[in-house]
Structures are given as structure tokens and as C-alpha cells.
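Project standup — Tuesday

K.O.: blocked on the structure for the chain from last sprint. Re-posting the sequence here as requested.
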Amino acid sequence: MANETNKIDAATLSTHGKLAMFNEGLKKGLANGEKFTALMDQLIDTTDAEALLAAAQKLADFKLDSAYVTFPHQYKNADYYLIFMSRLLSMHQDEQATLKTRAHSEALYHVFDAISDDYTFLYQVVDGENGGAYYREQTTGENLFYIHLERRLLRFNSTAFTNLFINKLLLKGADVAQINTVLATLINFGHDLQDDFGFNVDFNILDVNNAARYELRQTNLDGEVLDKLFVLAAEHDYMLRNSPNGHGAEIELPGALVIDVFDAGTPENAKWVLTVRDTEQRVSWFDVLLHFDFMRDWYLNNIEALEIKADPLVFA
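H.V.: unblocked you, prediction finished:
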């Protein structure tokens, strides 16, 4: 009888242990869910910028499901970048980017009322050590900018802006005012990150600062490229003159707008750059491409030489 009692006690303890383990797993899973909802409350409701960023950082890496508790309805980690962006823009009274949900799923995306809703924008999280995410237009696959919340870093991509807003939109009938509405929101987002969190932001082709030097992808510019600009400028009654910064050329456009293309390198290592100067520092090189047809033709027809280089660490 003693042996049988021991067997019953062992079986009872084993069952108790399994049940306790199961119950503990449920508790931890539910507690994880409560932690998640607290962060969501923070992301949705806070009016404090740092609290908003902290919630977005944690949710972008949050694993909601556990071995014992699975939540069938949840956003992807990339979606929290979208929510963060929308909330930050809203806090600065910019509502141009509309956050929408795909039918039959919790997947989020942005649309802009100013342009066709055929173009949808979402974030693509970067796997691996670098982390961060790209803000991507889904139809074309163009990565407009890269953001890293922890490193407080934002980098705009000249190639994507040219391909999407000029090649896909402007040259196919979109109005410049419509494009500028979208650009303004994206630029505002960059300034909001700078002002509220001290982000390191490279506006790249969108930079309006007179001191900005747009570095060309081709370091040693062929003289024939400048000759082509000379011909185009003459056809439109503009005169090209020697650059005051050395080897290169300068052209003045209406509104005291001066474009300068010159070699800012050394005799041993060429480094061609482009600058845009205006009295109010409100015009970027991208603005020039939008408003001056012959400058845009020159740039696009010689894009392999003239393309503005984006940060090579995040844009190959």
C-alpha cells in the first residue's frame, strides 16, 4: 500500500506542477498584454514629445504573443513608426498624411489627399544589426527616407524623391502644388524630429539652406555635361558664367536665384557639388527641378553624372 500511495502522490505533484506552470505562463502572457496596452495608451494619448518617442521605440520592438497567450488582432512592428509619425505631425497641426487600415487586416498605411490614392506609404523595418526603418511608397518601392528612433537619425533619399515625385507624378500630369503639399509634410516631419528630439537630419535634395552643398554622385564631372547646360540656358535666354568658387559654372534664375555647379575638391581628388542660393533661403535643388523645365531636363538627361548623392550608409 505504501508503494501505491507514493505513486499517487508523485502523479498528483506532477499534475500540480504542470497546471502551475500553465497558469504562470498565462499570467505572464496577460501581463505582457497589459504592458503593451499601457504603451499603446502612451503612444495614442500623450502630448509629451519624449514620452511619444519612448513609446514608439518600445512598441517597434515589442513581441506581444507568448507561448501561452496569442493575440489574433495586432499591428505589425512597422506600423508603430506610422502611428508615431502621424501623432507627431498631428501635435504640430499637420494632418496631410491620412492613416488608414487595410480591409480584413490590421495593417496600416498612409495616403495623401493631395495625390492619387494609388500611392500608399508605409514603413519597412530593417532586419539585422543596423535596425531602423524605411518610409516606402508601396506601388513604386521607392524608399523616401530612413529613420532610426534610438539613434535619432533621419536621412532623405534624392533618388527616390526624383523617381516618385518627378518621373512618376510631375511628368505624368500631377500639379506642382499637389506635390508640394506632400513634400511640405515630409519636410515638416524632419523639422519636428529636429526641434522636438534633436534628431540628426539630412534633408539632402530638399535642403533649403544656402550653405548646403549637394554632393554629386559622380565625383569627376565631364565638361560635356556643363556644355549641355550652356546650350539649354542659351535657348531659354539665360547666360552661364564661370563659377566664383573655381572650376565650374553658375547660372542666375528669376528671383535672384543662383545655381552654382563646381569642383569643391582638390587637384588630386575632385568633388563636384551643386549649391542653390536665394535671399530668403526657401528654395532647394528639388524646388528648382519642379519649377524650371530646362534645368530639370538637364538633370534628368544627365542623371548618372548629376544625381545628388544620398547617405551611402543607408542608401546603396
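K.O.: great, moving the ticket to review. The first strand starts at residue 97 and ends at 101. The mean pLDDT is 93.
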